[in-house]
Amino acid sequence: MPRFDRSHTDDLAEYIRLSPTPYHACAVAGARLEAAGFRRLREADAWPGESGGYYVVRDGSIIAWRQGGPVEAFRIFGAHTDTPTLKVKPRPDTGSGGWKQVACEVYGGVPRDTWLDRDLGVAGRLVMRDGSHVLVHVDRPVLRVPRLAIHLDRKVNEEGQKLNPQTQFTPVWGLGEPRAGEFLEFAAAEAGVEAKDVLGFDLFTAACDRPSYLGKDGELFAAWRLDNLLSTHAGLAALIAAEDAEQTPVFVSFNYEEIGSMTYSAAQSPFLESVLRRVAGGDFERFARITAASRMMSADTGNALHPNYAERHEPGHHPMPNGGPMIKVSANQRYATGAEEQAVFTAAAERAGIPWQYYVNRNDIPGGTTIGPLSGTQLGVLTVDVGAPILSMHSSRELCGADDPAYLADLALGLYTCP
After folding, report:
1. What's the CATH fold of domain 85-207?
2. Which pLDDT does position 105 carry in this prediction?
């Protein structure tokens, strides 16, 4: 039965609203951690050895932990901060037929039709001449990818919407002739800086719709970036609550998961291992013993049963919203789950006192993957893949059960407090 306690999901809605990009997600998470007594560290500095809560940020990825006595084992909850969207190109000012447009590149697996005719803002980071990073979030309609009218595309309902990402997926933002430098000037002015002082930028389109409850009883929750801020927020909330953890709790949320995780701050990088080695201290022998006793939970959203496409799902496993977190299983290790890993998941769910369910792909419809197999292999740590069931994954607006975000946070806390 639904809980109807919306405090956690209300807070998730606010976190999503404030976090249109990975850089914002890390900044908001950092502010919440500091409010809870955590301290930000710089990787280039010597780190303190005393007890406390700490976190580091690298290029849209964040790692936080609670440090007590000597580390015996880590309990790691992992997620990711990025979302499929459109990324602004280095020379964005373009146009056609008297329209001003912004040149964008598709970032990740975007279902393109969901981005048509939507009011889009702009968000990201500007890297300044002095090396500082300035965040910008234009939280109002600025861009739009206009759909071709049905009168000019009579067969669209029979043949589907086919969009060339280079020629038919460029948003408009005004009328007139494009002028080189205009879009950067606009973004810089919105951030309160001079465009001449901006030496680099990562800017993305951002959905303007507010998160909201849906359904007769409000038992569903709709928002952009549920994949994967739902998991990021759950791990963050759990770490802040994990004051009595027996082992060393660690929260990590990586950038770039949606494009393969091959950057210096992503799941295939040495970022997490480097932080864990510094926290653990000691030599290789000590670190090897610690990782052998450690456990990791990789949390990402998964596909709930779609009522209009039930045949696309594995018939014996139909995860539903508000049914609790899913344990993701793949014989080919697209998800890092086996019998040992299931035992870790089950113990955490029992400790949390929450319901749970299975997710398995159809044999003839291969699914995606997560940071689980990557980080588990990188570290040599027993890792289980989990997640909340959602509909419309990677869409500009996704849908989950209103109770599932809190269930996932409870599961994370269960992991942190397991011996």
Report:
1. Aminopeptidase i, Domain 2 (2.30.250)
2. 97
